[in-house]
What we know:
With 171 residues, this protein is of the alpha+beta class. It has a single domain, classed as Aminopeptidase (3-Layer(aba) Sandwich). The protein is 29% helix and 36% strand. The chain has four helices and seven strands, in the order E-H-H-E-E-E-H-E-H-E-E. It has helices spanning 14-27, 42-53, 104-118, 133-141; strands at 4-8, 58-65, 68-77, 88-95, 123-129, 145-157, 160-170. Strands 1-2-3-4-5-7-6 form a seven-stranded mixed β-sheet, sandwiched between helices.
Amino acid sequence: MKNITMRPLRATDAQAVLAFLKTVGGQTKNLTFGSKGISVDVQEERCYLDMNAESEDSCELGAFDGGELVANGSIKRVSCCRPRMAHRFSVAVSVRKSHWGQGIATALLKRLIQEARIRGAEVMELEVLCSNTSAIRVYESLGFRIVGTYEKYFRYAPGEYADAYWMNLYL
């Protein structure tokens, strides 16, 4: 993982984040979006990143190779207005295909676990496609365990589905 730096994403990173999401969305079917990225504009992404920079309920991190965003990761409290669920945080990570297998996802997840602990998390949760064995191995190496299966989690086209595992890490 040489030359990779991690830091919180800022509003000034919005354009790079949106370009990154389009790139990674086109490189794999494992994400919730495709090559069009997510449907927000630069100003909306700036507001989102700015809001998260000050939040006790979320954290957005980027991994940079030089000046290029090559991975991102986030945590978000599942529900800040429902006290019985406020101990749970969702987590998500994506890595540019050119940087797969370099330990970036593991490093991002370790940092996100620390950030979740600081924010009072007791449970971290994620969904991962059952076919994404590389990601599952990374999550399990950090203590996540499969707690259930969601059949037909993704629908790629009529009749074409992918199942996902729910995985939790108990802090």
